[in-house]
Amino acid sequence: MTVTIVGSQLGDEGKGGVVDIYGDAVDVVARYQGGDNAGHTVVHDGTKYKLSLVPSGAIRGKVGVLGNGCVVNPETLFDEIDTLRERGLDPDVRVAERAHVILPYHRALDGIEEDEKADLAAGTTKRGIGPTYEDKAGRRGVRIGDLLEPDVLRERLEYVVPQKKALAEEVFGKETGEEFDVEHLFETYREYGERLAEEGMTVDCGTYLQERIDAGDNVMLEGAQGTSIDIDHGIYPYVTSSNPTAGGASVGSGLGPTVVGQGDVIGIVKAYLSRVGTGPLPTELGGVDGQTPDYDATTGAGGDAEELATYIRDEGGEYGTVTGRPRRVGWLDMPMLRHAARANGFTGLAINHIDVLAGLEEVKVGHSYRLDGEETLTMPPTTEAWGRCEATLKTFEGWSDVDWTAVAAEGYDAIPEAARTYLEYIADELETPIYAVGVGPGREETVIVEDPYE
């Protein structure tokens, strides 16, 4: 069977940790979209692993697959694999031959275009993700399978590289180097293709996954980023360039929608909101004057919204895995979650980081929006309208800090009552049961309510 893991917000919800907690029953973990902009941190046996491309399950000895919906930087892929090997692990990673390759000119153009866009910049990691997906849609991309055939690789590069060089030099007025040199790119990526072939890493992804399922194996499909930065269903243009939503799991893995639909789709929710990047954020702390509780991290009194945002950011480690950038922080946004529940068809929720909010006298939630004088319970379809939304906040009693490892060991009823009230409000609003509650960064600091593989 399959279980699909989907971010319900703006990314950074803790998807890698959920992959880890359900990992015992999993045989294969497949990423179905995104590239090495998708930083995730996994804590295993007390050791922290920061990954941006290798699927989370590879840390625990599972087969990791990068699906055809991914864009793959071979340099990043091999750097991560080699680093894990140096740390005593032996990751088994397969790559779809239909996945597209991030080349150096994609990264160069990503940086140039972000700078040129100014106010319309999406706040990308400048790792070439968007330009690679552009070439995929424009039918001028280079795929992993092309790296295995030198003649095909050269033909692809001789067609596309002069276009990219002209774009950089003649449109943007930039000097170019070896990242726009056909011969250099050919030799470098031919060698990557040789290593992929020597290590037997490439697969026909849909066929490979279906054969594993037919053999009785459990497959987990792992999305990167989150629903509200999905290119179709997110806050365009402040979005990623692929589909993190559950529909992308079928397209980006090669498995049929009826196969994916027969399994669980678990929505990962952070108990508050965070994001890296630009764009509106109606529940942002520091941006909703007069609607945040006074708070001081030491005394529990005094302070302002910005101090509270800094406290939550530091307690939650809200700094980008890939970029190190401080994330913007806000209260939980229920219209965003209702939108995600509808777009993905969640069958269960994993709610993380309730421990981060412990100690606050009160916790608030954006229950609904006021948009042009009317109440709305879900996100509007345009980012401009979303930017006009004002959050209507609902207040909950805070909960005290406790021994969260003991709580995880004892089970759901050991969670402080006020926190359970908060959790059950979320589940009721989304009409979706809670499968897990994250109460700390470690695998042992998770309350497991439901195991989708049992």
Helix and strand layout, with pairings?
Elements: E1 2-7, H1 15-21, E2 28-31, E3 40-44, E4 47-51, E5 63-66, E6 71-72, H2 74-86, E7 92-96, E8 100-101, H3 104-117, H4 129-137, H5 144-147, H6 150-171, H7 182-198, E9 202-203, H8 205-214, E10 219-222, H9 246-251, H10 257-261, E11 264-270, E12 273-275, H11 305-316, E13 328-330, E14 332-333, H12 334-344, E15 348-352, E16 362-371, E17 374-376, H13 383-387, E18 390-397, H14 404-410, H15 417-430, E19 434-438, E20 446-448
Parallel strand pairs: 1-10, 1-11, 2-5, 2-10, 5-7, 6-8, 7-9, 11-15, 14-16, 15-19
Antiparallel strand pairs: 3-4, 12-13, 16-17, 16-18, 19-20
Helix pairs in contact: 3-4, 6-7
Short account of what is shown:
The chain is α/β, with parallel strands linked by helices and 454 residues long. The protein has 15 helices and 20 strands.
Principal-axis shape: globular
**What is the first-to-last residue Cα distance?**
11 Å
Low-confidence stretches: 287-303
Share in helix: 25-40%
**% residues in beta strands:** 15-25%
> How many strand elements?
20
Mean pLDDT: 90
Largest sheet: 10 strands, mixed
- What is the alpha-carbon Rg in Å? 22 Å
The strands making up the biggest β-sheet line up spatially as 9-7-5-2-10-1-11-15-19-20
Specify the number of helices. Answer: 15
Class inferred from helices and paired strands? alpha/beta
